[in-house]
Design brief:
The complex is a heterodimer of chains A (313) and B (396).
Chain A: H1 3-18, E1 22-25, H2 32-42, H3 52-56, H4 70-74, H5 92-100, E2 105-115, E3 126-134, E4 138-139, E5 143-155, E6 161-174, H6 194-203, E7 207-211, E8 217-218, E9 233-237, E10 241-250, E11 262-269, E12 274-279, E13 292-299, E14 305-311
Parallel strand pairs in A: 12-14
Antiparallel strand pairs in A: 1-3, 2-6, 3-5, 4-5, 5-6, 7-8, 7-9, 10-11, 10-13, 11-12, 13-14
Chain B: E1 14-21, H1 32-47, E2 56-60, H2 67-73, E3 81-85, H3 94-104, E4 111-118, H4 138-147, H5 154-169, H6 173-188, H7 202-207, E5 210-213, E6 215-216, E7 225-234, H8 235-238, E8 246-254, H9 274-287, E9 296-298, H10 304-314, H11 322-327, H12 344-347, H13 354-365, E10 377-381, E11 388-394
Parallel strand pairs in B: 2-3, 2-4, 9-10
Antiparallel strand pairs in B: 1-7, 1-8, 4-7, 5-6, 8-11, 10-11
Helix pairs in contact in B: 6-10, 9-10
Chain lengths: 313, 396
Amino acid sequence: MPKEQAEFEAGMQAHVERGEKGVKTSWDEVNLPMVRHWVQAMDDNNPVYTDAEFAAGTRHGGLVAPPTMLQAWTMKGVKDQAPGSSTTDPMADVFDALTEAGYPAVVATNCEQTYLRYVKPGEKLHHTYRLESISGEKKTGLGIGYFITQLMEYFTEDEEKVAEMRFTILRYKPAQREPKRPPRARPGMTRDTEFFWQGLHEDNKLLIQRCLSCGQLRHPPAPMCPHCQSLQHDTVEASGKATLYSHVTMHHPPLPAFEYPNTIALVELEEGTRLLAGLIDIDRDELEIGMPLQLEIVRCDDELSVPMFRRAS
Amino acid sequence: MSATSSGNGFANQAAIVGIGATEFSKASGRSELQLAAECVIDALTDAGIDPAEVDGISTFKSDNNPESEVHRIIGGRNLKFFSRVDYGGGAACAVVMQAAMAIATGVCEVVVVYRAFNERSQYRYGTGESHKTASHNYDGATRAWGGVHGLVSPASNVAMSATRYMYEYGASSEDFGRYCVLARKYAANNPKAWFYQKPITLEDHQTSRWIVEPLRLLDCCQESDGGVALVITSAERARKLRQTPALIRAASQGSCDDQHMMTSYYRENIAHLPEMKLVADQLWEMSGLQPGDMQYATIYDHFSPYVFQQLEALGYCGLGQARDFIREGQLELDGSLPTNTHGGQLGEAYIHGVNGIAEAVRQIRGSSCNQVKKVENAVVTAGTGVPTSGLILGQI
């Protein structure tokens, strides 16, 4: 472990050992209106929470609040913490240190609550909180980081402890994920065209069909020569020299296999035939019809290679 | 030129006597078959012809509704002619040509043309992604040339030609925008248009996002749900029906000059539409009319740059001069060639051009919401960048 990281971890452990506490108070006493909102939202129909007459006949002797409302009573308002809460967060320096060390992202991973007894309307709660533990550096699906557990202890006004909660978060370095692009569409092929794709992929050659009878070159390939009707043909390898004949820049709809904007060129090969192709390292505003280009056959995956062009040097 | 001159046997023999449509939307909420049936019945009602009389159907290869099924559910009895034409929107006028030929040759008497789809709510026609898995046939092998680089959408196919057109003639995105503003102006006055009461400014066009440079969002037609149908019968019968007939003076198809489907990138010059020139030459010859004899035009506007190339192919201006023609206001109601007064496919709806044929019929009837003063003859084109077709309709 690098020295810096060891020091950083030791600093966090020291914080745990110091056990510095903060406190959070509640705005309101445990009360029936909030309980009613909660049980309706949760669809918890137990009458012991809302029916005073029924509750009086239970072992509680009166209304109680649902234990799982624990966090609600001391939770910060949308704007402010209840008066009497710590004005500075004793854990702020730990979190700042984590951000500084490169673990800015946060995700809550565990919450474990222990209820020592039911709380009742009229009781006013506060809780203390402190850093209970910090894990060693862990590798997770989200990225490398530290699991940090806080311990919250809940008390009544006369300091009777009624519950505790352990809340664990992961502070992590978001993993640098390579954008996973699906492969490009497979080219459909017939007996007339498969030589072209095989030539690119297997022999690293850009091939142009040539009529064996009249010598005319043609692309796209076809079984018959439109000039002399011959069915006999072979291929010649393109030199790779070309000029830009036309181009488009695709924005919409984006296909997952490509980066956008995606400029596609219609190039005129030195041999005279035209070809659709991708471009490498040429910005759209540098495109000039007629500009000289040089072929680069790009292997997209194990099955497909495509012709692309760079600015000719 | 007489209707019976050599090779022009079907000129002036048939007429469009009924037009019908569903509403144009982005989510019809019903099946494509229902849309087809609804627009066909609407067109037959318009014509005053009983569905039982329909004995011919002509539609697009790309339509999902079988002719026999549409015929069955509208209450047809004997279907004697059914025909489909390929190449997407390039079929638009060719389906009418099929109908006119079938009627002129006595194969059948009442032909219905329909195009009905949920191309917005059920699938996105404009993404070009409907063929994700490679087919090892001609179509799959042909899509592969651009597909492996991500060149898949119709907009991108057209953009390649548009870049070259701009390079050759100095046309700009703003030039394209002037057509789009006009189409939306017409649509804003057409209650059936999707963009009714929603005109745009040139600035709106210039600030709309790129779809495929050099095409912006507002250069592209809509994806629509809806259906449009036409009823075609003999010119003789047309005279006795309730609506002013739109006589089919000429109709033609064209595929030429190293033609490919959407990707004719290998011909000498990709900034032209020679297939539309071939269509136009036949239209003028067959009808004996000239570009100047037209008082109205429906120019297929899937993407604005092809409107320019079509005006040039039809002979309304020289190569590269459409931008001046449009800038001068020639496509306006008081211009020399009022065009796409329904709002086009940019403004009304994208029903593969059949809605544009219906608008030409309305102009001849005198019932367009952007009516041109007196329309004796109208020229209509079909989808371009593909093997295509055209029509001349006129007063009987």
